[in-house]
Amino acid sequence: MLSVITVAIIEDNRLVREGMRDMLNELPDVKVVLAANSLESSMLKETKPRVVLLDVGLQDKNSLRLAESLKKELAESRVIVMDLLPMHEEIADFVNAGVAGFILKDATFEDFVGTIRSVADGARVLPAPMTGTLFSQIARVAVKRGREAALESVRMTQREREIIALIAVGLSNKEIAHRLGIATDTVKSHVRNVMEKLALHSRLQIAAYAHSHDE
Questions:
Q1: What is the rounded distance in angstroms from the CA atom of residue 50 to the CA atom of residue 74?
Q2: Contact indicator for 126, 103 with CB cutoff of 8 Å
Q3: Percentage of residues in the chain with pLDDT exceeding 90?
Q4: Is 105 found in the same domain as 28?
Q5: In the sheet where 51-55 sits, what is the strand order?
Q6: Is the same domain home to 109 and 61?
Q7: Element of type H or E holding 52
Q8: Which residue has the higher pLDDT, 66 or 213?
Q9: In a domain, 138, yes or no
Q10: Tell me: the pLDDT tens digits for 147-173?
Q11: Between the CA atoms of 180, 184, 186 and 190, what dihedral angle is there, to the nearest 10 degrees?
Q12: What is the CATH number of the domain that holds 84?
């Protein structure tokens, strides 16, 4: 007999919410038991979903607090956070709060469904761009030792630290290359490595990371 995964969707965009509900309900092993625009504990307790899809962009809501509340009130349910690519600090916080998975809103439907099924089976799932680095270096450590220790566990080479510092003061790749006496392509390679290790996706995010660690 096919085991059906019951799902609750908490999403305040009606078009997105109803679209998710309709697509998931077409699957033989998934049933949406609740699709709401806000977190109603009583409704969730009544439906007892196996998986809760939580939009982190709910208006006027603290998504991290909502995730923590869900895990306390629905211990048997597994929470998946839906968002555009979050910052690495946010990932660590959500992991500590008990979130079991993350779905990027630009993910394919196959990845979307695959994440739901994997989380329902007990796995922890992060988006593909984060899987190799973030899960092993940040999320896993965050669970055991807390966010600050998790961030410290990401190992940077001396050259990568130099490049982070120069990005933070606004230098371009060409200017960094001239300052360090290396090729521009080499700088680009280092920047890509930094982004991968920190699960960041822009130079602006690298600069923000550098400034936050100077405080």
A1: 9
A2: no
A3: 19
A4: yes
A5: 30-36, 5-10, 51-55, 78-83, 101-104
A6: yes
A7: strand 51-55
A8: 66
A9: no
A10: 444 445 566 788 888 998 898 888 888
A11: 80
A12: 3.40.50.2300
User: How many structural domains does the chain have?
Assistant: 2
Within a domain: 77:
yes
Q: Is residue 148 part of a domain?
A: no
Q: Give pLDDT tens digits for 12-39.
A: 888 888 999 999 999 999 999 999 887 7
Write out the residue range of the structural domain in which residue 107 sits. Answer: 5-130
Residues 86 and 179 in one domain: no
Q: 3-state class of 125 per DSSP? A: strand
Is 147 a member of any domain?
Answer: no
How many angstroms separate the Cα of 192 from the Cα of each of 91, 115, 133, 173, 195? 20, 26, 13, 12, 5
Beta bridge pairs of residue 10: 36, 54
- DSSP state at residue 214: T
DSSP 8-state class, residue 140 = H
Half-sphere exposure at residue 128, Cβ-oriented, CA atoms within 13 angstroms: 8
CATH code, domain carrying 159: 1.10.10.10
Neighbouring-strand partners of residue 5: 30
Report DSSP letters for 67-101, one per residue: HHHHHHH-TTSEEEEEES---HHHHHHHHHTT--E
